[in-house]
Structures are given as structure tokens and as C-alpha cells.
TrEMBL record:
PANTHER family: IRON TRANSPORT SYSTEM ATP-BINDING PROTEIN HI_0361-RELATED (PTHR42734:SF5), METAL TRANSPORT SYSTEM ATP-BINDING PROTEIN TM_0124-RELATED (PTHR42734). This is Metal ABC transporter ATP-binding protein. Residues 19-250 form the ABC transporter domain. Belongs to the ABC transporter superfamily. The lineage of its organism: Bacteria, Bacillati, Bacillota, Clostridia, Eubacteriales. It comes from the Bacteria. Keywords: ATP-binding, Nucleotide-binding, Transport. Gene3D superfamilies: P-loop containing nucleotide triphosphate hydrolases. GO terms for molecular function: ATP binding. It comes from Pseudoflavonifractor gallinarum.
């Protein structure tokens, strides 16, 4: 699938947004989890969603994915102006597999992208398709590994490859950096940058790792039930809202 590129993507809203959230609200069991959540996600942009535990980051993803109901609007506009429902690729928060599980990356992938029965040998054409998907994340060599034997970083790459098939308009990753070591983190961030440049898709991810935000995020959304601050990483990380949410004491830091 080729993704049509927006002409006016970049700072500010020029009317070429991929995804617009306007006054989004989510209630679960009578409790207000999110309210008044508004921000835009542009084509080719990496947006990091940050906030304390329980801020509503995963709930926001679930609302965008259509898994839970919401109030307000989630609007998607393609480069040509059409408003079809976007294709969204999703990488969930660190799923774990039994270390002894005999299922290979090929079996797992083939079952997810085709209806070929897993108990039959995988046809060559399907194997090549899976290899092509894994190549997008430089993971072709993982094809015959057992899922249970993958490292945290390798598993993230396999799940990322799966989320990219078919190529989505928007890629959502729920805490992709948790459980990944420093090298794996660097590789994953480089890969996300390469993916957004190659395919011009928008990436929305949640993270608790603030040290890397300036290196990879175009924009940061600080969430705690509602949006407290949106802006470039440095602006959000030095904002009074950030300090208050994460209980950073200005006096102790001599500022
Ligand atoms: N199915 C549910 N039923 C009841 N409450 C829920 C449900 N899902 C989420 N919540 C509540 O909604 C709030 C937001 O949870 P959510 O998982 O979206 O936060 P989060 O920002 O992703 O947290 P974390 O950083 O810890 O992963 C929490 O108070 C949580 O208990």
C-alpha cells in the first residue's frame, strides 16, 4: 500500500492533519477516565504521550482504536482531503510468551496475516511474505526463532513488523521502551524514525522514559485525565505542569 503524503505537515495546524482529537472523553464504569482531550497528530510526526500511572494513556489508545466508546470526536483526514477511517497499526504493551513455547516467529506471523492452517507446512510464498514484513524492521533473521526465545527488543521488532502489515496511516505503540535495554532502545528509536521517513506515517507512542524524548519526539502530550500541556519536548519537560504532575520540587533543585 502506498501512503499519500500530506503537503503541509509540520509545526502548527495547516489543515493537513492526519488525526484530530477534539474534546474527547472516556467514562468507564461511571468513572471519568478522560475528559476534554484535544490535540492533532500530523503526517510523518512522532508524538509522545506522557503522564503518570493511571493518567489514561492506554485508555486513549483504546478509544482511538475503537475498542471503547468515547464522547467528543476523533476525526481523520487524508492528504487528498478524504475522511475515510484510517488504518491503525498497534503494538501493545510488552506481551509475554511462555519461554518454552514452540511457536516460531514464522508460525505466529503467518497465522496473523493469513488464514493458512498453522499445523500445515508454511508455503514458500507465505514465508517470503513474512520475510518481507520482517525486513521492514531489519528482522529477517528472526523468522525461524521461537517466540519464547526472543529478547525484549527482538519481540518488539516482530510486533512492530506485524503492526506495519498492511502499512497503516497511524502507528500506535503502548510503552515500547519498557523492558528494552539501552542498545535495544536506541535501535527501536532509530527504526521508528526510519519508518516514519520511509512511509510518511504518523506515530503515537506512550513512554515513561523522558531522557530520550528530545531525541525522537516532534511533539509531547502531557496527559493526566486531560491534556495539561502539548508542545516540543523541551517546552513540555520544563513546564510547570510537568513539574507539578511528577512532583518535582523546584526549591530542592535550586531553581
Ligand atoms: N476496564 C477498566 N475498568 C475500570 N477502570 C479502568 C479500566 N481500564 C482502565 N481503567 C482505569 O482508568 C484509569 C486510566 O488507566 P490507563 O491504563 O488508561 O492509564 P495509563 O496512563 O495507561 O497507566 P500506566 O502508565 O500505568 O500504564 C486508571 O485509573 C484505571 O484504573
Amino acid at each position: 500500500m502506498s501512503v499519500q503524503k500530506h503537503q503541509n505537515a509540520g509545526e502548527g495546524c495547516t489543515g493537513a492533519c492526519c488525526l484530530r482529537l477534539d474534546k474527547l472523553g472516556v467514562d468507564i464504569g461511571g468513572d471519568s477516565i478522560l475528559h476534554d482531550v484535544s490535540f492533532h497528530l500530523h503526517c510523518g510526526e512522532i508524538v509522545a504521550l506522557i503522564g503518570p500511572n493511571g493518567a489514561g494513556k492506554s485508555s486513549l489508545f483504546r478509544a482511538i482504536l475503537g475498542q471503547i466508546g468515547h464522547t467528543g470526536s476523533i476525526d481523520f483526514q487524508q492528504a487528498g482531503g478524504s475522511r475515510t477511517r484510517p488504518l491503525i497499526g498497534y503494538v501493545p504493551q510488552s506481551p509475554s510468551f511462555d519461554r518454552g513455547d514452540p511457536v516460531s516467529v514464522l508460525d505466529f506471523f503467518a497465522a496473523a496475516i493469513s488464514d493458512w492452517p498453522v499445523f500445515l507446512p508454511t508455503p514458500r510464498r507465505l514465508r517470503e511474505r513474512v520475510r518481507g514484513c520482517l525486513e521492514r524492521v531489519h528482522g529477517a533473521s528472526l523468522i525461524d526463532k521461537r517466540l519464547g526465545a526472543l529478547s525484549g527488543g527482538e519481540l518488539q521488532r516482530v510486533l512492530l513488523a506485524l503492526a506495519l502489515e498492511p502499512l497503516p496511516h497511524i502507528l500506535i505503540l503502548d510503552e515500547p521502551l519498557s523492558g528494552v535495554d539501552i542498545d535495544g532502545e536506541r535501535q527501536l528509536l532509530d527504526m521508528l524514525d526510519e519508518i516514519r521517513r520511509s512511509y510518511d506515517l504518523s506515530i503515537l507512542l506512550s513512554t515513561h522514559d523522558f531522557a530520550t524524548l528530545e531525541q525522537f519526539a516532534d511533539k509531547v502530550v502531557l496527559l493526566k485525565s486531560s491534556v495539561l500541556r502539548v508542545g516540543p519536548p523541551r517546552e513540555v519537560l520544563t513546564s510547570p505542569e510537568f513539574r507539578e504532575v511528577f512532583h518535582l520540587d523546584l526549591r530542592k533543585e535550586g531553581m
